[in-house]
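#struct-queue
[09:14] JT: dropping the first one here, sequence first, then the structure tokens:
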Amino acid sequence: MTNDTTTRKKASSVFFAAIMVVSMVAVGFAAAPAAAQSSSTDADVTFDDAQDIEGSLVFSGQSVAVNVSSDNLSDTIQLRRETGDSSSTPVSSLQVENGTTKFVDFETSGLQTGDYFLRSVDGTEFGQNNSAFEIVTQEISAEFDPTSVDNGGSDATSNLTIDSDLRNDYDVEISIDGFDNSSYQDLVDGSTFDADSSSTSDDGILVENAEGEHQIDFTDISAGEVDVNVSVVDTDAEAVAPITVNQVGDGAVEFDGSFVTVDQGDVAEITLTFEGTQD
């Protein structure tokens, strides 16, 4: 979010509006511009009304929309951060757009974690006592087991576990530097995702409802040390899962022992040792 001030007031003259803006700056109100008000579907999380946000957890990085159609509000409300039991500081000025459904929305990226609330500018419809919520940081972990695989044969898979303590229902994007859509599709082929769905693009593999364990197949992936980036789609949470991909040759077969002696017509047992790809 930025710290520019955007205020829409019904005024009888442009001069009066300018005075209002100057007076807000004079008392130290650093307000960010109102977010676009196209529809609630633009936001990562939507609340049915201003009071519905009371007591909720919002994850840092999410965009938030609040339906204020049932409230008799002025054109502008404030997003404020609590600094004490009875004190707060303004964060941004949110514009209420008039229409069939009225929404205010805001971004949480860049905001401090902590307690926030909405305040009516020209009314008492809601405030610190009925619209308080908390912005928290979502953290995730991502790790492979085993951490070393071959790029062919029976040892080409590893289990990728994705976990978050505070949240269990979220989508992630899995990406690797230098990969494109074709490379990601090769990675998906043969892999098994314990998720609602998965799809690929040049940006990565989108995994919906990604909490859990996923079996990743590294067949035909270039050998080397690979950092697999896992990023939550709607928050700032991300993790890196390193894995070593070993080069496997075309394969070779060797006889155990130089000679096998049997009588003519008998069945000989011959032990073979496979190296490399056995498929």
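[09:21] JT: and here's the second one, same format:
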Amino acid sequence: MKKILIPVDFSSASRKAVTVGVALARQLDAKLILAHMLDQNVTTSSHNEIERINHNEHTSKEIAEKFEQFCKDPAFAGVIIEPLLQNTHDFERIAHLANDLQCDFLLMGTKGKKGSGGSLSTNNTAQAIAEVDIPVLVIKENSLQFACSKILFVNNFDTESVSAYLRIKKIANILGSTLDHLYVNTPGTGFKSTAEVDALLFNFFQKSGEEYPIQAIKKVHRISDYSIADGIQSHSQLNAIDIIAIPTHAKRHPKEQLSKSISEAIAYQAIKPVLTLHI
């Protein structure tokens, strides 16, 4: 894990993400790529085209200088950073950047609701979760000191999420984290008996290549609740968790709406950092 991409908009939420990014960069000896999305269509009361262009150029220059000063913060001491000023406010560019630069991680700060005052909004976070192929770590503005000692992997344990499980195992190993598992049994057509859950877990761990699938089953926490988000909250209240990890479908996947709604709800509600991984 050598490249961490962080969108920066100078808000307290993005500064929180940068603080976490610096800690991870030091731990992993990784480079931080700081990207600011520059809005070149800044609104102005002038109806004169030349005045509007001059106003936008002046504003862009001010933002560029502010970004340059931001990247000189002493907090970055000892960390390799690469500042990128993007001449677009289209957040889809982040997905292209992540792929073009071969980043390993996208780290985003959010308020957990639609942003105000220029902060990264829930819409941008949801877009990143849906479109960025690399793991996305969402940090709440009001989250406490970041730690990664224990990761809770929340999963429905169907075989299509095996790839996400293998990725989170690798990430946990890199971070030196303990990996816990949670299965939330919800009411309705998806409810499963104990025997059915056992069979589901056995098949999953067998497909994952676990040498001892029965032993792996015993390590899965099970909880019944009205929704996955409620189950995670209930479990987290009784257990020390640092990061919540959840697999999610890419935007192009036909199950997009269901998967996005779950991952977005968790990223919105949870105070703990949330890590999403594409299936």
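[09:30] RK: nice, looked through the second one.
[09:31] RK: The two ends are 19 Å apart (CA to CA).
[09:31] JT: good to know. The first strand starts at residue 3 and ends at 7.
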